Amino acid sequence: MNFSFSHRRISGVLAVVPANERSFVDEMSNFNFPPARSLKLKQVMGYDKHRIVEGPVCASDLGCFALEYAFGHGFVGRNQIDALLVVTQSPDYFMPPTSSVIQGRLGLKQDLFCMDINQGCAGFLIGLLEAFLLLGQDSVSKVALLNVDVLSRKVSPRDRNSYPLIGDAASLTLVERSEDPTPIHANLKMDGAAREALMIPAGGFRLPSTPETAVLEDDGENNLRAKDHLRMDGSAIFNFVQVEVPPLVEDLLRTAGASAGDVDYFLFHQPNRFMLQKLAERMQVPYEKMPSNVVEHYGNSSGVTIPLVIAHNLRERLLRDSVRACLAGFGVGLTWSSMLLRLGPLEFCELIEFP
Amino acid sequence: MKTVLEILSGIRLEFDFTASDSFIRDGMLDSYDVMTLVAELEQSYGVTIAGVDIVPENFCNLAAIQNLLSKSAAKP
């Protein structure tokens, strides 16, 4: 499915990571693997440090922190936001929506469109698409897109396949109208038939959490996790990304009449360094044009990784300059999406810590 | 240059890789071991293994890995 927009822009990006930093080496003893084997994997995948919340911190806590920071620093006025989109897989409650929780906690105006979107690693793209669509309404001038997840609370600390790479984080992306007629192209595909490759089996209405769903089980590869925990078929997800993402991006560039050489940066979701380097090789894109350093610093925070890769690598440049960027997100659903747009100059671009 | 067998043994010391024709089925390599193996093969043999070729069937035994190395070496 293809989309195109014009007169839209991202005006600012604020990324928030928890101050609590853990290291893979310190956590290795939790895993049922010989240290030497884990250290080899660390080198290949780029595991090093990750940021996770301490205690019962929820999505709305990180979201409110981001918005309060933005209000306090004059990035946007409290009453200037016309829509609040919250993209999360770790809502505070089944009901009400986390966007309503945030609206209420911050005392935002009632004349506000609040919506939660249950999406993960493609969630930044999905959120941007929704924001661009909302900006087609005269009553909507500024959209606050909050991507936030605290999925470390749903990953087994005894699961070496997932725990070392998980990261908690939030991002606030301000999206608004622009005078710039430059087209923004995007595309999107979904495959719900493969939904079980990445899921949390228990805790919803299909399989409510019980003492039985909390029991740790060996997955056959020495990882211990319960049905209440996130589980990922690493091999299936890896193959899905390698097979599906390059042609999606090729189609995007073809539609836009552009080539890979016209793109300054490929700012992709950050599952791990190995997967991104393999994507770069397949797409014949130099590694330096496709940053892959988010997992080693912060972990994989689902829909927040693209704002994080922007804030970590490009914040100085984007405050004074613009780049032609190709974004791509891929993961739960399964969902994969890409977008070609001009990014910057931004009015704000920061990376801050949640205490 | 390390042999494929030496690389495999370096990743999973506890297994005899000459005694199996299905490393994945026999639980000798998991999906993350495969990624470690790919990185070490690329380093030792100076090849680039395409992401789409990183599927279990290309790592199920020594012959399959040798075939993959030949295929990867032949690519420009």
Shape descriptor of chain B reads globular
Distance between the termini of chain A: 41 Å
Instruction: Say how many strands of chain A there are.
Output: 17
Secondary structure class of chain B reads mainly alpha
Helix-strand pattern of chain B: HHH
Model regions low in confidence, pLDDT < 50 over at least 5 residues of chain B: none
How much of the polypeptide of chain B forms β-strand, as a percent range? under 5%
Q: Give, in order, the helices and strands of chain A.
A: EEEHHEHEHEHEEEEEEEHEHHHEEE
Describe this structure as you would to a colleague.
The complex is a heterodimer of chains A (355) and B (76). With 355 residues, chain A is of the alpha/beta class. Chain A has a single domain (1-355), classed as Peroxisomal Thiolase, Chain A, domain 1 (3-Layer(aba) Sandwich), CATH 3.40.47. In chain A, 30% of the residues lie in helices and 26% in strands. Chain A has nine helices and 17 strands. Chain A has helices spanning 24-27, 35-45, 59-72, 98-106, 123-134, 234-256, 273-283, 294-298, 305-320, and strands at residues 2-5, 8-18, 21-23, 49-51, 83-87, 113-117, 142-149, 169-177, 184-190, 198-199, 217-218, 224-225, 231-232, 265-268, 323-331, 335-343, 348-354. In chain A, the strands form five sheets. Chain A has a six-stranded mixed sheet with strand order 6-5-7-8-2-17, with helices on both faces. Chain A has a five-stranded mixed sheet with strand order 1-9-16-15-14, with helices on both faces. The longest helix of chain A has 23 residues, at 234-256. Chain A is globular and about 55 Å long. Chain B is an all-alpha fold and 76 residues long. Chain B has a single domain (4-74), classed as Non-ribosomal Peptide Synthetase Peptidyl Carrier Protein, Chain A (Orthogonal Bundle). Chain B is 47% helix and 0% strand. Chain B has helices at residues 4-11, 31-45, 62-74. The longest helix of chain B has 15 residues, at 31-45. The two termini of chain B are 21 Å apart. The model of chain B has no long low-confidence stretch (mean pLDDT 90). At the A-B interface, helix 2, helix 6 and helix 7 of A face helix 2 of B.
